[in-house]
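Hey team,

Filing this mostly as a record. A colleague (T.K.) asked me to run one chain through the structure pipeline before their review meeting, and I want the input and output archived in the tracker in case anyone asks later how it was produced. No errors, nothing strange. Just documentation.

Input sequence:
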Amino acid sequence: MPRDLPLSNGSLAVNFDSGYNLRELFYPHVGEEDHTEDHLSHFGIFVDGVFRWIDDPVWRRIRQTYEAETLVSDVILEEPQLGVRLTLHDAIDFERNVLIRQVKVDNLREADRQVRLFFHFDAHLQEANVGDTCFYDPVHRALIFYKRRRYFLLCGQAGQEAPGLSNFATGVKEFNGSQGTWKDAEDGRLEAYPVSQGSIDGVGEIDLQVGGQAGAIGWFWLTAGTEYPDALRLHDWLLHRTPDRLLGRTRSFWSAWLHKQPKRFEGVDPRLTEVYKRSLLVLSTQVDRSGAIIASTDADVLKFNRDTYAYLWPRDGALVAYTLDLCGYAGMTQRFYTFLADRITSQGFWLHKYNPDGSAGSSWHPWSDPHRHRQLPIQEDETALPLYALWHHYACFHDTEFVRSLYDRLILPAGKFLLAYRDAQTKLPRPSYDLWEERRGILTFTTATVVAGLQAAAAFAETFGDGEEAQAFSEGAQQVRTAMLQQLWDASSQRFVRMLTLDDQGRVVPDKTLDASLYAVFDFGVLPPDAPQVVATMSQIREQLWVQTPIGGIARYPGDAYHRVSEEIDRVPGNPWIICTLWYAEWLIAKATQLQEVDEALPYLQWVADHTLPSGVMAEQIDPYTGNFVSVSPLTWSQATYCRVFQEYVRKKQALAE
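Output structure:
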């Protein structure tokens, strides 16, 4: 189920699904630990003897998005049979670890009514439903969920009444057939059992008196801390500041964040501009305060392989950081580069991926080849692209003091690794895994990033007066570029090959599969966008990888099996990907020399907008028949690629108009 309306302050983060159920709750890192483990936490209402959870299909969903230019949700649901309308606003305070929910209940009938609201939390603290505890705190009239050094306080307030839950329930679930306290709520009465331990959940209730044809407001909040007093202090702080003021300050912060720098979007389709703003806000929810840029916090993919996308991939992170710098967010990217500097290996490369706390992430890349000889379990583009993106950061902000701190720690080690990790005869990079993490070889995409990485290392060395290193990096970049153009270009097919491999006899075997990632040849500066080889390659990508259904979009490569929904390979080479479609748009923009040529990219930007949720959330892939989201959402790479290509579109139009 697609994730919608993610919220985060870089430490506490939540995701809601398309039914507006809370599905993930992360603390103390974005993406780590998931204290619901993809289990649904419900929200419901009881009125006139009838109970409804808000994901019941009888609700009419009037709106489900964010308030304009903020990370405050704006959801309106109406239940004609009950005669009620709910308006919900959720936010995470921009600084403190507090989730706030405002619920306005509009009574659509003439008679006064009592309304009960129920907030359910299905705890899987520290990603396991073992050894959790939930108890009622009678002093604060709140529920406390805890395990080891993780504490969550659930409380609420009905209108202007004294803060505290009107009623509560704690109980056991997922054990001996127990379903949980959310079932207890469905008769409108909670049993108020004061403590449960093991595999538990809990429900908090507040009661509102709502006049005929009138409205009333209730509040819930969840505070997070590493100790019980921490959660209590946040609770007391919230009561001192009031929930309404905290919601207001969060609105103000994100509006200020979004407008950090003046941006000129005159003459641009307002819908595309709106998607850009929303995408930028969604992107921000996937960045941890540690500097880790998370690929996706959507845990729904657990159903397929018992692992998630909640990791930092240095490649994805570098490309997202490039976009954030393009949009003016140097502070966020400085933390990212510092994160990487602290984790580079002694040999000068980065591992496959990292957890948000900086530890090494899970990996399927082996340390040995089929003959049991040692090999590096890396994707070399993940070492090259941080250098490329860091040089772009420096070009944007010229923050010499910051970059100086990374020169010896990150730039030189990574540059020297790229220089050394090459075949002595061909001058091409040695084999590594591809960006799709499916095959190992000498890849055109990876080789292009190595050229860009070495050029960045050379530019840094020149800037810091390191002439000998600058020359070595520059010569290495030129050698790789020359070798790439000679050995990875296939004249017979008039495009670059996907990769080269060696068979058991040591012979070079080209993989001529057309792959959308071949866009890298122009994007990372190996050739200009109007070079004949680039034009021929990109034209074939559009012709052969465009999905021939009403949905459209560009697939990764023919026969792509990842989450495949179609066997019509001739019509549907694979599911269309947001990033692949945007790469083609990026090429059209890059090669444009006249205003009308820039607008050739518009249909592809509009295609992405058409396949974006109202909240701004984008998926990894799109179902080629239904247009539904496939795999994870939001995918940070998709969000960032749209923001980058939109910026490039606007800037190119402005440059050609001057």
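Quick notes for T.K.: The domain at 43-258 is CATH 2.70.98.10 (Beta-galactosidase; Chain A, domain 5). The longest strand covers residues 200-210.
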